[in-house]
Design brief:
Mean pLDDT: 97
Largest sheet: 4 strands, parallel
CATH topology of one domain: Rossmann fold
Shape: globular
Low-confidence stretches: none
Strand order of the largest sheet: 2-1-3-4
Distance between the termini: 34 Å
Order of helices and strands: HEHEHHHEHEHHHHEHEHHEHEH
Number of strands: 8
CATH class of one domain: Alpha Beta
Helix content: 40-55%
Structural class: alpha/beta
Number of helices: 15
CATH architecture of one domain: 3-Layer(aba) Sandwich
Radius of gyration: 20 Å
Length: about 375
């Protein structure tokens, strides 16, 4: 059997080595473009030859600094994002030539005004409904982004550049989709914490084919070992995690689930399945195809957001879920309001957990997750 643990260890090491790799890329003359959101069309950035990077936004450490300019009762993700930039403690932000933002919520779009004082920040005006006219508006915004990047980075984006990067990004989505599908097996061949590790590793792959090949290798090894009888995870209650973007500080929720008799089999959040389950149509003109795919991401900022409800219902069936945990960041009103609709649509046990990045509620989370999973029994 393949040594699975050695592959996971390689991925863990890659997380800490990410900033070094970006510095090396800058030293070699590459440009870095900072991103915060799943709506960012990576294909356009990559078509310039630049490297899109996910900026730091999921730690409580810089929140106090962020609150010097932002209200305390704001979403922790926004305060953390700004705090990292303000204190220059995000190594990725440090090397950025430009930052891309989207108007997914009021807090973010106003924070970007302040962020623009620290780095050139291009804000994409996101239509917040999925309709034909909205797709046309989003296409115009993607084209406007392309022109801004051409100006800032001194390059020209060709149609062939876009088509190449669309194909490459679609390949990445397929590889991650194959990996996610492993957890439809019962019992799952890996824990939710390991699933989250691979999600985080994918963020720091920076389009590297070797990193993608490592995910392929892991997927193949887990499936083959499973078929040979290996059961790394005991049969437990199968949980889908949905809601706000996840990250380091929210691993406290994952721990609470998996320490109390549950196994996370899927992350629907924008750092997991949500941005990867649909491909860009490679037969259509690039900007049209990108607009349709990216506007179709079912974030709670969309109204109505039926695509999220449909996706969750499908995931519950595909992953044989016993329950759903909805993570709501404090002051994230769109996801908080949407909990009613999610609870109403799903026909299995469901719990919404409102939290922030601080660790003071770890014991409370453990108690709540323990009771939730015990209720399923």
């Amino acid at each position: 059997m393949t040594d699975i643990e050695s592959i996971f260890e390689t991925m863990r090491n890659a997380l800490s080595a990410g900033p070094v790799r970006i510095k090396e890329a800058v030293d070699e003359g590459r440009k870095i473009v900072g991103c915060y959101c799943a709506y960012t069309p990576y294909e356009v950035i990559r078509a310039t030859g630049a490297i899109p990077v996910t900026l730091c936004s999921t730690s409580d450490k810089p929140i106090a600094a962020g609150e010097e300019h932002l209200p305390r009762n704001l979403c922790p993700l926004i305060k953390s994002s700004y705090g990292f930039a303000l204190t220059d403690t995000c190594p990725y932000f440090h090397f950025c030539s430009i930052v891309i933002g989207e108007t997914t919520c009021d807090g973010k779009k106003k924070m970007y005004e302040l962020l623009n004082r620290l780095r050139p920040t291009h804000v994409m005006q996101l239509p917040q409904t999925y309709a034909t006219e909205s797709i046309a508006l989003w296409k115009a915004e993607i084209e406007r982004l392309a022109r801004r990047l051409e100006t800032e980075l001194g390059v020209t984006i060709t149609e062939s550049d876009l088509k190449r990067e669309i194909s490459k990004r679609n390949t990445e989505r397929r590889v991650m989709g194959d990996f996610y599908a492993l957890s439809t097996l019962n019992p799952a061949p890996l824990s939710g914490l390991e699933l989250n590790l691979v999600n985080e590793f994918f963020k720091v792959s920076f389009g590297d084919e070797k990193a993608l090949e490592l995910v392929r290798e892991l997927t193949k090894a887990l499936r083959e070992n499973y078929e040979e009888g290996e059961r790394r995870v005991a049969p437990r209650k199968r949980i889908i995690v949905t809601g706000c973007p996840t990250g380091k500080s929210l691993e406290k929720v994952f721990n609470a689930i998996e320490e109390n008799g549950g196994t996370i089999v899927a992350f629907e959040n924008c750092g997991g399945i949500k941005p990867n389950y649909e491909l860009v149509d490679e037969t259509r003109p690039p900007y049209d195809a990108l607009a349709e795919k990216y506007l179709g991401i079912p974030c709670s900022c969309m109204s109505p957001n039926n695509k999220r409800l449909d996706l969750l219902e499908k995931l519950v069936a595909d992953y044989h879920a016993d329950g759903v945990v909805d993570i709501i960041l404090q002051a994230c009103h769109t996801y908080n309001v949407e909990t009613f609709l999610v609870r109403e649509r799903l026909k299995i046990p469901y719990i919404a957990v409102e939290t922030d990045y601080y660790q003071s509620d770890v014991e409370q989370l453990s108690t709540r997750m323990g009771a939730f999973i015990e209720m399923m029994n």
